[in-house]
Every structure is written in C-alpha cells, then in structure tokens.
Amino acid sequence: MKYFAYGSLLDEAEMIKTCSDFKLIGKACLPGYRIDFTRYSRKWGAGVADIVKDETEEVWGLLYEISKDDLEVLNKREGHTNFYVKTEVTLLNEGGKKISAFSYKVKEKGSFESP
Predict the structure, then answer these.
(1) How high is the mean pLDDT in each 10-residue block of the chain (115 residues)?
(2) pTM here?
(3) I want to staple 38 with a disulfide (CB 3.0 to 4.6 A). Which of 4, 50, 69, 108 is the partner?
(4) In Å, what is the CA distance from 79 to each residue of 25, 34, 55, 83, 93?
(5) Under 8 Å between Cβ of 109 and 38
(6) Domains in the chain, start-ordered, CATH in brackets?
(7) Helices (H), the chain
(8) What pLDDT score was predicted for residue 110?
(9) Which of 55, 58, 72, 78 is catalytic?
(10) How far is C-alpha 24 from the chain's CA centre?
C-alpha cells in the first residue's frame, strides 16, 4: 500500500527503525494542504506535524510502498485513532501524475505549545 510521509518519517533512519519492509517510490506533492503544528507531543517535547486543508498551499513529502505488517507498526507509532487518523490523499508525483495513497492527520487539533 502507498503511504505519504511529510514529517519525521522523511528521515531515512526513522523510516528504517519503523518499517522493516518498505520501498521508497519518490517525492510527491499534496496539493490543497499546508503543514501546521496542531498538537503538542510529550514524547517529542515539541509540536508534531499535521496536514491542514489550504487550497493555496501544497505539501511535499515522500511516497513509500509499505507492507501490511509495516502498516500495523506505523499505526502504533503514529498513535492511530488516539492522536492521528489515517486519511486518503491524492498526490502528484514529480511528473504531475495523480497517485492515491494514505497519510495521517492529527485527530484533535490544538496548540503545539507545551501545556
């Protein structure tokens, strides 16, 4: 399955620690969104990245092919259903071709400042 990363998993070392069976497809663009920091993470001690609809912006990231086993690990890492939720996105590759994938967005948006 195709996964669009726009935050900490842009770092290859983080991706290797998280997913044992992934393939980098390449760079991709998510039109109509922007990066924001809408949640504070005690684990990171900082704000965490989020994608927010904004028709005037675009988010660049990396597109990966991941396995079902890696999806389970990724869901756990991202706090799927507690902190982040999966969302279907339509991306453009570097050649402008549309690609369907999933990504994560913050479930309950707030402030990234420490509480």
Answers:
(1) 95 93 96 93 83 97 97 93 94 96 92 57
(2) 0.91
(3) 50
(4) 24, 21, 27, 5, 27
(5) yes
(6) 2-106 (3.10.490.10)
(7) 12-18, 68-77
(8) 78
(9) 78
(10) 14
